[in-house]
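S.,

Sequence below, as promised.
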Amino acid sequence: MKKAIVFGGGGSRGSYELGAWRALNELGKKFDIATGTSIGSINACMYVQQNYEMAEKLWHEISMDEIMEHGISISSSIEKMMEQKDQIPKAIMTFLRNSGADVTPLRKLLKECMSEERFFSSPINYALMTVRYPSLEPVEIYKSNIAPGMLSQWVMASASLFPAFPVCEIDGEEYIDGGYYEDAPVSLALRLGAEKVTTIYLKDRRHARKDLYYFHPFNTCIAPHDGLGSMLDFSQDIMRYNEMLGYYDVMKQNGRYRGMQYTFTNESVKKLERYIHRFVRDISLLSIPDNHLVPVISRNIAGLKYLSFLEGYCNMPRPQASDIFLAKTEMLMIRMDMPADRVYDLGEVLREILKYFDEKDRFVLPNDIIARSKKKVEELLSAHMKSDLPDTTREFINAVFARTLRK
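The prediction came back faster than expected:
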């Protein structure tokens, strides 16, 4: 049975694929075919060479200066963008002069890190996707039809992120990024005879699920639960973070860990199994308190709606009770800004959550909202009783809301 690995496109997010590759190596997974688009064509080429060490060195040392002349990292952080403000005028002038970024450094880097001797002698087959410009016709390039001396050129054609990068010219034809046609070229792997495919996507799972081949019966998909940031942010801290996410996502998919966006040890989840099932049962029994404003049919579906909400976070066909519990846990971890690039003990995380949300005034609402809520309760009770509230009822309401007021 031929097995293929497919590397998706996504610029600097490709460090996620490095982490996934490392995990697959540790799990003893081997592939007969490697295909890729854009940055994925570079990683796939390195995989064919079976040169993980070179790929790791490349990703751990690469910077924007080795991608383009006078380039700037496009970050979601305003602070990081402001750090580069002196470089922006040069970047704009270079872009206008070259009809895109000057990617001479990237061309040089590709020639240095790709050994054609090692590539062509490898038993692993290879294909990449690029697109002819301006017709936008897909062009499939296979290992068998890459001429000697042209490997880095075709990889560059697949990775020409137009219009940020200029078009790549080969033999009088112009080419741009293969992602304009197929972001993760599963089709190439199937054409090369793959009967089992592992695809690494660089877009979050919700978007990856829209890919035509995501649910293909031969395809096993690895995708981050959340986004990996800008595809042109070559900051080492961001790339190392994404690399660890790729590593843990593969390990989770192979049963070594648990979790969606975060990663938990199997043992710590199993220890809390009894409490997890109780949590899910109690949620499913949540109901809206009886009152004359709520139709009878609606009172008992509050818990089921919340379960559905948690299942949506899991983003899997049929989540288990433990997945639903972890979904709620992860939502709280996100609110606490806990990093996702490490392995957690679930029991310790729950203690941290309780400590964090037990701090004074953590959930206190502004006094004006409390006052409006209190007035609304009094009005509803008065309408229900068709008379003024008794003093004892009013005192009880005051006591309840007094507990919520800021001190």
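Confidence is low (pLDDT under 50) at residues 403-407.

Coffee later?
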